[in-house]
Design brief:
This protein has helices spanning 15-22, 25-31, 133-155; strands spanning 4-11, 37-45, 51-58, 72-83, 87-95, 105-113, 118-125. By secondary structure, it is α+β, with helices and mostly antiparallel strands. The longest helix has 23 residues, at 133-155. The N and C termini lie far apart (56 Å).
Length: 160
């Protein structure tokens, strides 16, 4: 049975800026890792059919065992679709010896222009059963909060 996890967030930035942060290597490294993690991109090919490999490291691995090792999650992400400025579709595969993390998870980032800002909704389908649903949805919400902070801070004028 396929599982779907979701989260969304209103961001005070135009859709084009939000989309850009979804397809820029430095931006992804800054905001994509959820709270309690840091990320580093090893491989980068930003085009449909391309993708990236991200190493996510737990800041405190004691209470958060990784999928790949005690302290890390390694994920290979393919860009299945890039439709500026409306949608980015990832196909993610975790590197793990545990079969409960196997399979390809699809993460669709929907970007919708609204009067209040840009609504970003993430829909994850075919989520591996080893990933706790509540923790996954909290992680997606954390990444969206990081994205909002990243973009909204960039929008503010600097003092000087």
């Amino acid at each position: 049975m396929s599982r779907t996890d979701r989260a969304s967030r209103l961001i005070a930035a135009p859709p084009e800026i939000v989309y850009g942060a979804l397809v820029d290597r430095e931006s992804l490294e800054a905001w994509l890792p959820p709270d309690g993690m840091r990320g580093r991109i090893q491989r980068w090919d930003p085009r449909p059919g391309g993708g990236f490999r991200m190493i996510l490291t737990y800041l405190d691995p004691v209470n958060s065992p990784g999928k790949t090792s005690d302290a890390t999650d390694v994920v290979d992400v393919g860009f299945a679709e890039l439709m500026p400025p409306e949608r980015v579709v990832h196909r993610a595969v975790f590197e793990s010896e545990d079969p409960s993390y196997s399979g390809t998870m699809t993460m669709t980032w929907h970007i919708t222009d609204t009067v209040e800002g840009t609504e970003v909704t993430v829909t994850a389908t075919d989520v591996p059963p080893g990933i706790d649903q509540a923790a996954h949805e909290a992680g997606i919400a954390s990444s969206l909060a990081n994205l909002a902070s990243y973009l909204e801070a960039a929008d503010r004028p600097t003092a000087g």
